[in-house]
Write a sequence for this structure.
């Protein structure tokens, strides 16, 4: 079967990154069954032949109007598809969609009519926000990191920047590679417009957000960038939990030490 990836090495490389990250998510235990989602803006990789491809699905409503996405193309993990399968067969477990001129609907154009994730409105809303502010970010990720979700069940951790500062303090690399920290979003129905709106509000200050009792979302230059930020936060959570399991409260780096890191690595204040 002919694939949209055939004879398009740059697009194939981008989808290859998606497949690689999907494998990591499964290996880490962050993607049980069909858990988690990946949506990547591939508009810059679309050629005239792709732009002329006919729809292979009916017109589907997004559920909201997203004016900055007019004519954009996205690779989306399929609904009810497993990350472990996407890692091996990305074009059988995901699809490429085109946003239509009304900015409120889309069609699938390749390779198969695999319906995108049920959380597509939240992901596309994030991409609409990013494009609207001129961001170069192309990827959004949602996954279920075990230790971070566990920490979201503890109310004191859900106050603004409590988890950010705690996780930053566990190991220097966390602040270096996730310098904007972790935003907190109170529990909302998965896939809802309300969840999308709450996520966008937090993206003004954070690249990674915690959906309380649900999982983490991250945005980045590409899907590997988004994954790396979640990965370093998860490592910090593991360090904290391991210390607690040994019966002591970890000291963490001091505020002075973290300020020193900020200056030395020219990080956002």
């Amino acid at each position: 079967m002919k694939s949209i990836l055939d004879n398009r090495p740059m697009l194939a490389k981008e989808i290859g990154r998606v497949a690689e990250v999907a494998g990591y998510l499964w290996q880490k235990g962050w993607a049980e069954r069909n858990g988690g989602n990946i949506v990547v803006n591939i508009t810059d990789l679309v050629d005239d032949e792709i732009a002329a491809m006919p729809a292979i699905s009916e017109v589907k409503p997004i559920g909201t109007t997203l004016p900055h996405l007019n004519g954009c193309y996205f690779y989306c993990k399929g609904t009810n598809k497993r990350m472990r399968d996407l890692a091996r067969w990305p074009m059988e477990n995901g699809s490429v969609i085109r946003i239509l001129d009304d900015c409120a609907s889309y069609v699938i154009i390749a390779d198969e009519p695999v319906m995108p994730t049920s959380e597509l409105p939240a992901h596309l809303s994030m991409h609409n926000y990013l494009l609207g502010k001129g961001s170069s970010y192309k990827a959004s990720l949602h996954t279920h990191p075990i230790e971070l979700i566990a920490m979201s069940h503890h109310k004191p951790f859900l106050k603004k920047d409590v988890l950010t500062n705690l996780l930053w303090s566990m190991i220097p690399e966390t602040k270096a590679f996730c310098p904007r920290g972790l935003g907190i979003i109170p529990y909302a129905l998965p896939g809802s417009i309300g969840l999308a709106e709450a996520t966008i509000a937090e993206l003004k200050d954070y690249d990674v957000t915690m959906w309380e009792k649900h999982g983490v979302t991250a945005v980045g230059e590409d899907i590997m960038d988004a994954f790396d930020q979640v990965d370093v936060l998860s490592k910090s959570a593991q360090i904290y939990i391991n210390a607690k399991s040994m019966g002591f409260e970890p000291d963490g780096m001091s505020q002075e030490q973290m300020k020193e890191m900020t200056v030395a690595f020219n990080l956002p204040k």
In short: The radius of gyration is 19 Å. The chain has a mean pLDDT of 95.
